[in-house]
Design goal:
47% of the residues lie in helices and 19% in strands. It is an alpha+beta fold and 424 residues long. Strands 5, 6, 7, 8 and 9 form a five-stranded antiparallel β-sheet that branches. Helix 12 (373-386) packs across helix 13. The longest helix is centred in the middle third of the chain and has 35 residues, at 262-296. The chain is extended and about 90 Å long. The mean pLDDT is 94.
């Protein structure tokens, strides 16, 4: 049983659970968890409920039972009142709780805020004419040269720009540390790959020479035990190689590409870069349209939504860091900040994300935009062609998450198309 009202833009749900309903939930909690309790004289899962309660306390099953009945009332309320849209998890306050009378509790939750949608016509965002600069062409050619460079051994002293193959072993206060030792490590001198001062001391060494390189770890180093510590690396220079870049001419181009001349290669490169620039310009233009519509709109975003969005953003970032073999704590230490400050710095982006999402939902609702089955078929077909698959095989391979992703893509395309139509 429940009653509901809105106070200060928050949903307030008061629920009542009878003593009989709570007793049933306690029994359910016992049946579900009895195998987890060890009671002398009984095999796992065979101890009577009363014996477990006497051993572990009368209220041992209360928390789970409370969660079951209160959550059940909350779920029932939402199913029966689809117009109520909570913005996050409710805060639960117990008003009264006795075994003979049951439970009375109040659930308070923020509501998805209403959006005052700004005009989606007369937008000022412009599609920028894509350009390809000479530097882009030169950089691409330079990249091609570097990918076909030769490394020639040198018997001269190591210089900046050389590639030095070294063995090294680092220690702090005479004790070696994890990750401080390597063999046959190829280091580009002047690349600033290592700690400041390391590469500069390798410059000038001769092949076969051994040297103690003294450095100090920075204060924001990602390993706590090494922060700000002076260290000594015993370095042996095993080989010095100089990088020789090929001359860019028709012969080089014909040797390493499908083109016969440098001019043909530049022409094709320019065309590809222009296509990339067009795609980027279109993406930037569409993002600018959405941002402008969002800026024109008004919405009061509850703090709970921002907090949850920040949590999700950081969780996603932490997941991506893990793929690089790094922990969030180490990354934050490397930045020289704290987790609280890290979260605080993401609040503004979180608000923008939420606002844009709510504005899009408002546009969809107000203009009855939807994705038809035929449009989803076309979207799946285009992806099947892109990956060289049969449409039916593509459909079979799609998880529910994949399908929702395609559906969201199709919906975004329709929203963008709708906004563009209002701004011809």
């Amino acid at each position: 049983m429940y009653t509901y009202e809105i106070k200060n833009k928050q949903g307030v749900l008061k629920v009542k659970v009878s003593a009989e309903e709570f007793e049933k939930a306690v029994q359910n909690a016992y049946e579900k968890n009895k195998g987890k309790f060890k009671v002398q004289g009984f095999r796992p899962g065979k101890a009577p409920r009363r014996v477990i309660e006497q051993t572990y306390g009368d209220t041992v099953f209360f928390d789970e039972a409370f969660e079951e009945v209160v959550s059940g009332e909350y779920s029932k309320f939402l199913e029966e009142n689809l117009q109520v849209r909570p913005a996050g998890y409710p805060n639960v306050e117990t008003n009264s709780f006795t075994l003979d009378k049951g439970i009375e509790a109040t659930l308070t939750f923020d509501l998805i805020p209403e959006v005052e949608l700004g005009s989606i016509s007369g937008l000022k965002a412009k599609l920028v004419e894509p350009k390809v600069e000479a530097k882009q062409i030169n950089d691409a050619i330079e990249g091609l040269r570097n990918s076909h460079a030769r490394f020639v051994e040198s018997d001269k002293v190591a210089e900046n720009g050389d590639f030095a193959t070294i063995d090294f072993s680092g220690s702090v206060d005479g004790v070696k540390f994890d990750g401080g030792t390597a063999s046959d490590y190829k280091l580009e001198l002047g690349s600033h790959t290592f700690i400041e001062g390391f590469e500069e001391q390798v410059v000038g060494m001769k092949v076969g020479e051994k040297k103690d390189v003294k450095v100090t770890f920075p204060q924001n180093y990602h390993v706590d035990t090494l922060k700000g510590k002076p260290a000594v690396f015993e370095v042996v220079l095993k080989k010095v190689e100089k990088k020789e870049l090929p001359e860019v001419n028709d012969k080089f181009i014909s040797d390493v590409t499908e083109f016969e001349t440098l001019e043909e290669y530049k022409k094709d490169l320019t065309s590809k870069l222009k296509d990339e620039a067009k795609k980027k310009a279109q993406i930037d233009y569409e993002a600018a349209l959405l941002e402008e519509v969002s800026e024109r709109s008004k919405v009061e975003i509850p703090a709970s939504m921002v907090e949850q969005e920040v949590h999700d953003m950081i969780h996603d970032f932490e997941h991506r860091l893990s793929h690089q073999g790094m922990k969030l704590e180490d990354y934050i230490d490397y930045l020289g900040t704290t987790l609280d400050a890290f979260k605080k710095n993401r609040e503004e982006d979180a608000r923008k994300n939420i606002k844009t999402r709510l504005v899009l939902q408002k546009i969809i609702a107000d203009n009855k935009i939807s994705v038809s089955n035929s449009e989803m078929e076309a979207k799946i077909k285009s992806y099947a062609e892109q990956y060289g698959m049969q449409v039916e095989d593509m459909k079979k391979s799609l998880s529910q998450q994949d399908y929702l992703y395609f559906q969201n893509q199709a919906m975004m395309e329709k929203i963008i198309s709708f906004i563009k139509e209002q701004n011809k």
